[in-house]
Amino acid sequence: MTVAAFMDAALYHPEFGYYARAVQRSGRAGDFFTSVDVGPLFGELLAKQIAEMAEILNSAFSIQNFDLVEAGAGNGRLTADILRALKRDAPDTYRATRVHLVETSQAARAMHAGTLADFADRLVTSSAALPESFAGALLANELLDAMPVHQVVMREDGLREIYIEGHDRQLRLREGALSTSRIAEHLAALGVNLEPGWRADISLAAFDWMREAARKLKRGFIMAIDYGHEAAELYSVTHSTGTLTSFARHRSAGPESAAALWLRTPGEQDLTAHVDFTSVRRAAEAEGCATLGFLDQMYLLLALVTDRLPTLDAKERLALKTLVMPGGLGTTMKVLILGKHVGAPQLAGLSSYARVT
């Protein structure tokens, strides 16, 4: 099977998949740490940006019912933090908001009603699929990195794909012809030339998902937050060993040792690869979106927190430091903000240094 098929089964099999078997995988007791685990401040700052988006749609386009869609919602913690802040700081936006939580794990979906118990009147849908049509804002926080990737390697005689064979715990890798012509077409469209020996991880699933999401968004915004790079950097000597790796108990196998480790214990460890933001952006633009900004999480949050800085208590200041720390979440996490049929608004989160490092 392809690495993409293996990754899909290991992460999302309805009974044995990594995400299917637990309602929460992140946090100090989990396998990895996200911005949501830092505390509610992350959601509160995103709420400020979301409230501005809702106001733009209302004032400029008379959209009074604001759809807030979180894809890869887990148990709903991030949306709960956002709604709590909206209810307190932007009550008009809160009353206009209709929440749609999208999560493949049935166990996690079962937690949505409880997590959002204080905001039950805002929750409209809890589903494994995106709404067929919506107008508002779509939020995807650390979703795209967990989508299956095809792994390829360049050899002297051309591009080869990595396959997995064997059974039970005796799995091994082999090389073969490309499973789909889309892989070579994708690299050619980007103008990427891999050198012999270089590996690359290509998430056709992430590109397809973004096209679907952008198509279903009738008017509004998409905010994707994840770790990754522009294609020119991702498919370069800097990442020539590939980026696919596993996480368990906050320890990464690392791409160099991935062949030995990410095949082990499928369904019991996280699998992840860096996001190709160039291709994700192009997929959305093909469905009518425009890129409003691409920047480090640090710059987004610092722009959004400015007027709150004097009122932050010690705990919140520590949380902010963790969220914006260079070399940590602040610069590892990138934010892509897209708009569809909204013009070119000057968003508050893009008012600082809108750049990536």
Explain how this protein is built:
This protein has 357 residues and is α/β, with parallel strands linked by helices. It has helices at residues 3-12, 35-38, 41-61, 77-89, 91-96, 106-109, 112-115, 182-190, 204-216, 231-234, 258-261, 277-285, 297-305, 314-324, 329-332, and strands spanning 66-71, 97-102, 123-127, 134-141, 150-155, 158-167, 170-176, 199-202, 217-229, 245-248, 251-252, 270-272, 275-276, 289-296, 333-340. It has one domain: Rossmann fold, CATH 3.40.50.12710. The chain is built from 15 helices and 15 strands. α3 (41-61) crosses α4 (77-89) and α9 (204-216) runs parallel beside α12 (277-285).
Give the secondary structure arrangement, pairings included.
Blueprint: H1 3-12, H2 35-38, H3 41-61, E1 66-71, H4 77-89, H5 91-96, E2 97-102, H6 106-109, H7 112-115, E3 123-127, E4 134-141, E5 150-155, E6 158-167, E7 170-176, H8 182-190, E8 199-202, H9 204-216, E9 217-229, H10 231-234, E10 245-248, E11 251-252, H11 258-261, E12 270-272, E13 275-276, H12 277-285, E14 289-296, H13 297-305, H14 314-324, H15 329-332, E15 333-340
Parallel strand pairs: 1-2, 1-4, 2-3, 4-9, 9-13
Antiparallel strand pairs: 5-6, 5-8, 6-7, 9-15, 10-11, 10-12, 14-15
Helix pairs in contact: 3-4, 9-12
